[in-house]
Amino acid sequence: MTSLPTAVTSSPNASAAVRVPPGLLRNVLTVAHRELRDAIRSRWFWLYTLSFAILGLAVSFVSAAGTGGTGLSGFGRTTAGLINLVLLVVPLMALTSGAASIASDRERGMLAYVLAQPVSRLEVVLGKYLGLAGALLACLSLGLGTCALILAWKGLRTSPASILWLTGLSLLLALAMLSLGMLISVLARRASVAVGTAIFVWLALVFLTDLALMAGALALRLRIETLFGLSLVNPLQVFKMWSLHAVDATLDVLGPAGLYAMDTFGDRVAILFAAALVAWIILPLGAAMALFARRSPV
Amino acid sequence: MSYMIHIEHVTKRFGRAAAVDDATLDLGAGESLALWGANGAGKTTLIRCVLGLLGFRGTIRVGGHDVRRDGKAARLLIGYVPQELGFYDDLTVCEAVAFFSRLKGLPHTDTDRTLATVGLLGHERKRIRELSGGMKQRLALAIALLGDPPVLVLDEVTASLDAVGREEFVNLLAGLSGTGRTLLFASHRIEEVAALSGRVAVLEAGRITRVVPCADFVAETDRGTVLHLFLAPSVRDQAMQSLRVGGFSPHLNGVGILVPVTPERKAAPFRLLAEARIPVDDFEIVSATHARRVAHVPHSASSSPGGNAVPHLAATEVSS
Q1: What is the bridge-based pairing of β-strands B65-66 and B57-62?
Q2: What angle do CA A107, A177, A250 make, to 5 degrees?
Q3: Quick check: helix, strand or coil at residue B151?
Q4: pLDDT above 70 as % of chain B
């Protein structure tokens, strides 16, 4: 049974008036730690991780079966299969978790409560971003790591460098999509709207922009450099091109646009990809921070 | 003169409507002030401005810190209890205390002492979702008291509690007045205002119309009591008739009957209904002011020649 005191008798501490509020780093880490633990305890984290590992294994075995199951060319196909899987799953995972983060906290009244403490809005957004980024990294590492281990155990030769590249690039893609998700979350009033918008954006990035690019190329007879330039606008395309380049050192499989990129930029094309993905991380996150500083948390 | 809370010409608009309109208010150290007003009067908006949660025109300083320019330092001095604790449900009580302790920059927290202060010792391993409404509010108070802040800001903290929880929580808070803390709270319950405040700022449509000593405010506004009787729908008409015959002016509302009574006649309606063999399922006593507020009856309608304090209550439910 609860023992209820009849009155609170403590008095304010004089030192409270002269205490210094905690610094940016401490608050960011506090919020990030909280967010990471919350994400790891949630069902979505384990669901995504498990789905990712199972789908990764399925894709790998199917790809490897087509080449007799061994050899680096086999793994080239396996990696291509994994790249396509990452293209579908990781953006969805990052966009929806980012979109839900701030909007659902606002809806539950949690955001206002946290912001009523000695913490700034910048610290809250950064902390949430870092925490979710940590959860996504854990999810990707577990998913791809499990996949690589089982492939190795089954005797399929895998290149650790390829897996590491794929994990690193997947994380960059996840960070870009997380930034976009958080921007959506700051803009939306309700969590359901935020998540719905995130799913629409995912659909647009995965399917619609590809279709639009193909249609545009045919209808408008776009020049090859314009086509390549436009494909850099979609972070998913950037990830795909960079991954293929990292694993294969060429972009031949992309056809004329890939050949144009390699002819024009050579290996420096990787810098172009990196700049595009980093811009996709920084710009939406910066916009989210700027908007969050102005918008009401209630 | 330096004030613990200084509010100067604060205006907050939502679109074209002013939720707070040119509010000016000062609270000295250790002073306790209630924000009184109907729903939508601007109490919560003003509190959110003090916490720096909303943008506004004007100036608000807490302990000398401008809440917009130096918000973290200002909020370090404030312990805040919201109407309802909205927080990560899966956290344990202990984890919640630790999280907020870190946010407040406290090097270490004596969790047991903190929880004992609000009567939550023994519940530290419970998850927040397992706590009752009253326990959640006590946890929010424990969190607010972390670091012994010199200012407490409470926003209708008992609104979501039942009658027992309300009484317990008000008792808990009563100890805070007189301990040197500055207390700013919003309420529409006269008993809370009477128990906790030294002065009352009355808000109407976003404007502070007057600031009066609590004793004067209570004497002036709480002139009567209304019994809220909960009866089965099948007996309500019969009960209305019995009460009218007994000299009362009852009014039906959504879930029962409101009966304005003078202090010396509080038991009479029960006697009348018992004689008529009409069972009363439950009842609560609400202040006339509260009943007027809910029923939107003008203050001037509160006196009646029959001695019943509130003769013109509309058929509106009084929230408990």
Answers
A1: antiparallel
A2: 175
A3: strand
A4: 86
Q: Note the pLDDT tens digit of each residue in B216-260.
A: 888 776 566 788 899 988 898 899 999 988 888 787 776 778 888
Q: How many residues does this entry show for chain B? A: 320
Q: Same structural domain for residues B200 and B257?
A: no
Q: Are residues B65 and B183 in the same domain?
A: yes
**Most B-contacting residue of A1, A2, A8, A44 (CB-CB within 10 A), to test interface:** A8
Name the residue in chain A with its Cα closest to that of B63. Answer: A17
Q: How many domains does chain B have?
A: 2
Q: Between A and B, how many residue pairs show a Cβ–Cβ distance under 8 A?
A: 140
Check if B15 contacts A (Cβ < 8 Å): no
B255: domain CATH number is: 3.30.70
Name the residue among B319, B316, B314, B318 with its Cα closest to residue B249.
B314
Asked if B67 and B207 sit in the same domain, the reply is yes
Q: Which domain holds residue B242?
A: 225-302
Q: CB neighbours of A7 closer than 8 A, spacing ≥ 6?
A: B171, B172, B174, B175, B176
Contact A108 B71 (CB under 8 A): no
Whichever domain contains B110, its CATH number is 3.40.50.300
